[in-house]
Amino acid sequence: MLNGELFSLHYQLNSDIKVDQTFPISIQEMTCFKDRSFQRYKLERYFDLLDFDNNQRVNTKDLVLWGERAAANYEEAGIHVPEEKLKDMRKKMGRVFNCMTIFSWAGKNKKRFVNYGVTTSKLPFFKTIFRVLLLPAWHALDFKGNGELSLQDFYFVIVKPIGLTEEDAKIAFQVMDEDKNGMLSVEEFTQGVIDYFSDTEVTKHAFAYGGIKVDDVPEKYKECLQKSIEESWNDDECEC
Ligand SMILES: [Ca+2]
Ligand SMILES: [Ca+2]
């Protein structure tokens, strides 16, 4: 039965109800030997995007700079960001980063950052904890105080500050706007970010930080990624 593919478990709850359930668990998943090369690629890419000052480490400075760039984008568009909001952002972004990286320990270099990301993503309750930690960052960057982001807000706040384009913003927004109402809720945003960090296979949230070049990803995932792009980033499973 354990042949490296899927296996089925047939069991009977009682004499009247028969359940035939297929568990989509591969041997790799059961034994924790998942191929994490695509997840590692995404984490390395994120590290490079976040290392604003290009000093091969990420720390609170980078994160605060993210918020300051976001505020500057609003100012440039004629939308004033009050000084209190900026102060609040600096405080919250610093705290968020310290919590997420054990006071910048995990951001000391790319290798450590990636290993830390992979290891923590395997922990129980990772998604719940990550979601809780992301909330203050969301509020810190919600300069307009709307509680949700339009495509333009998303571009100003998340995408442009990390050096990506409007096209990247459209791609990322499309894959994260789950209910297609043209606005990004905190739930949609946090789910996209969490999946970007933790999914080991190609899912639509691999594009949560914009377009990914097929040439850049590990060989095994190129075909899946190409398929996902051609099919407008749907989330159907793809055998890699
Ligand atoms: Ca840096
Ligand atoms: Ca939405």
Can you characterise this structure?
Residues 164-199 form the EF-hand domain. InterPro entries: EF-hand-dom_pair, EF_Hand_1_Ca_BS, EF_hand_dom. The relative contact order is 0.12. It is built from ten helices and four strands. It starts with 6 loop residues before the first strand and ends in a 10-residue tail after the last helix. It has helices spanning 27-30, 37-50, 60-76, 83-101, 110-121, 126-141, 151-159, 166-176, 186-198, 219-230; strands at 7-12, 18-23, 148-149, 184-185. The strands form two sheets. It has a two-stranded antiparallel sheet with strand order 1-2. α3 (60-76) packs antiparallel against α4 (83-101) and α6 crosses α9 (186-198). It is mainly alpha-helical and 240 residues long. β1 (7-12) and β2 form a beta hairpin. One calcium ion binds next to loops.
